[in-house]
Amino acid sequence: MGPGLLASAVLLLALGGCARPMASATRDGGPSTQCEVGAVPAVRHLLYFGRNIPGGGVVGDSALRRFLAEDVAPRFPAGFTVWDATGHWKGASGLAETERTIVLMLLQTGGGNADSLARVVAHAYKQRFRQEAVLHERSVVCSTLE
Predict the structure, then answer these.
(1) Is residue 141 exposed (0-12), middle (13-18) or buried (19+ Cβ within 10 Å)?
(2) pLDDT at site 95
(3) Closest CA to 116 of 16, 24, 43
(4) For the sheet containing 135-143, what is the strand order?
(5) What pTM did the predictor assign?
(6) What pLDDT is attached to residue 127?
(7) Rounded CA gap, 4 and 14, in Å?
(8) How many CB atoms are closer than 10 A to CB 133?
(9) Domains delineated in the chain
(10) In the chain, count of helices (H) and strands (E)?
(11) Strand ranges (DSSP E) for the chain?
């Protein structure tokens, strides 16, 4: 083991003691974790919406704004965050595709039905824009408003 690799291993071991407790979900889907003082457990949903439309065309900015206003905002009135990304994936056709992508972040604190609402939003996007799939990433986090 070289000196750089040894130093990296020592650093990882030292930082291991600084790790925060792992978060998990309760039986009803709500967040369950031990957060530091001032933070609350929350479930973070990331939905990845590809902008290419099968058969040609793309989901335009105005169509995306309309979707957010009609399908997301009423279901998540407390707010959400959207950002642009570039996605790369291989669909049912077997062909790899790179496309403009929108990432939608939803944060659920306490109980609630954000899991099912996130799935409804993903389904609405698939239907409206003839998408094969929407990636839904779910994680339990600790959150604070600073």
Answers:
(1) middle
(2) 87
(3) 43
(4) 81-90, 96-109, 40-50, 135-143
(5) 0.74
(6) 97
(7) 15
(8) 12
(9) 21-143 (3.30.70.120)
(10) 3, 6
(11) 24-25, 31-32, 40-50, 81-90, 96-109, 135-143
pLDDT along the chain (146 residues), means of 10: 37 34 48 80 94 92 97 93 95 89 91 82 97 94 88
Give me 70's structure tokens. Answer: 């009609």
The dihedral of CA 46, 47, 51, 56: what is its sign?
A: positive
Task: Compute the distance between CA of residue 103 and CA of residue 142 in angstroms, rounded to an integer.
Answer: 20
Chain-centroid distance, C-alpha 90 = 19
d(CA 91, CA 113): 29
- Find the angle CA(47)-CA(71)-CA(91) to the nearest 5 degrees: 40
In 73-94, which positions are buried (b, 16+ CB within 10 angstroms) versus exposed (e)?
eebbeeebeeeeeebeeeeeee
The tokens of 103 are what?
């990432």
Across-strand partners of 52? 58
What angle (nearest 5°) sits at the alpha carbon of residue 39, between those of residues 35 and 40?
80
pLDDT of residue 111: 67
